[in-house]
Amino acid sequence: MLTDNEIAIIKASTPALAEYGEQITGRFYQILLAKNPELKNIFNMTNQQSGNQKHALAMAVYAFSKYVDNLSVILGDVERIAQKHASLGIKAEHYPLVGSALLEAIEEVLNPGEEVIAAWASGYGVLANVFIEREKALYKENADKKGGWSGTRDFIIVKMQQETPLITSFYLQPSDQGPIAEYMAGQYISIHLHPQGQDYQQIRQYSLSGAFDEKGYRISVKKELNAQGEGLVSNYLHSQFKVGDIVKVTPPCGEFVLQQTDNPAVLISGGVGITPMQAMLETLTKQTNPREVHFIHGAQDRQHHAFKNELDVLVEQQKVNAHCFYQQADLTAQGEHHGLIDLQKIHSLLPSGAEYYICGPLIMMKAVYQQLKDLKISDDKIHYEVFGPNKSLV
Asked: Is 95 a catalytic residue?
């Protein structure tokens, strides 16, 4: 437990963290990885180069300082991060290394004095213990469940199916032919690879893109390469892997899942953000007493709309109401709209009391979130997943 004085000191740091947070976290990663280069096998170095990781960490440190006297406010963020850590294989012994580098970075950038550093050391110890205990529980849950395991497990690629010009589905089954762990729609697995020419292992998380069927897992990966170097692993999967090859997989993790409720569900996705939504859609439509489901997707055109044929079948079976927004298309089918996702065009068709789920490019998600707020949808009805380092839609 922190003393009142320690809490006061940490809260007083909030303005400085708002101004210098990214400078601190940028220096933190430099110190951490220089002293512990083996951690490059865990950290996504592309996110380091793009600056996404230091921004996400700066926001997390800022939130801790702001709510250190009421940590319940950030429990959702703690759970999200703990799930990602469990998927990456973060261990208790990593936390002292992180704490030492963080304190050194704070001292170097702010030079706040011994009392402030001591308070932050105590604060970090409290937060680290929260993560260590939660991640310990997650590791045990994943290992103890039927078909579960700890660490990585070898899976064979038994099928590859092109969904769009850029997205390919990989069907994975365990090489030991044993049972696999059940997952909740919306969760993800981590793929551990060591691409040729790279000095370190690369770990990437991919949403499971279908309902659980006990036979194996499906991930659907977009081949993407941009100026920031993102797409290293996705390109490697597309170009170097074939049916029969083996990948190392961690157990399913993630807190972006369907709420346990009978409320209608509105699934909103853009581009490859469709992957967790497809798992949710398949899960919802297979339930004995399915609830009302609306599926809203934005894509460049029909050709770039993954799982379009499956959606058409569900629409024909009257299991889902579909609303597709295409930037480039001749609109001929019912439920198709031109342009970006615009909820105003269809808001009269959306059910009251629904739970809304969003996944896609960050700019699309922020736009949709604002549209939902304009429609007076409360935050407790809005659930979302941001690919990559955690970012807020607010």
From this structure: yes
This prediction's pTM = 0.93
Task: Look at the alpha carbons of 53, 46, 218, 147 in this order and tell me if their dihedral is positive or negative.
Answer: negative
Q: How far apart are CA 291 and CA 326, in angstroms?
A: 26
pLDDT single digits (tens) 271-330 = 999 999 999 999 999 988 889 999 999 999 999 999 999 999 999 999 999 999 999 877
**Contacts with 30 (C-beta within 8 Å, 6 or more apart), sequence order:** none
What would the two tokens of residue 301 be? 């055109």
- Residue of 95, 139, 183, 356 marked active site: 95
Write the pLDDT tens digit of every residue in 39-60: 999 987 666 665 678 888 888 9
* 161 close to 171: Cβ distance less than 8 angstroms: yes
**Three-state SS for 8?**
helix
* Alpha-carbon span 379 to 299, nearest angstrom: 25
135 catalytic? Reply is: yes
Axis crossing angle, helix 114-144 with helix 75-88, rounded to the nearest 10? 60
Annotated catalytic residue, options 6, 22, 135, 230: 135
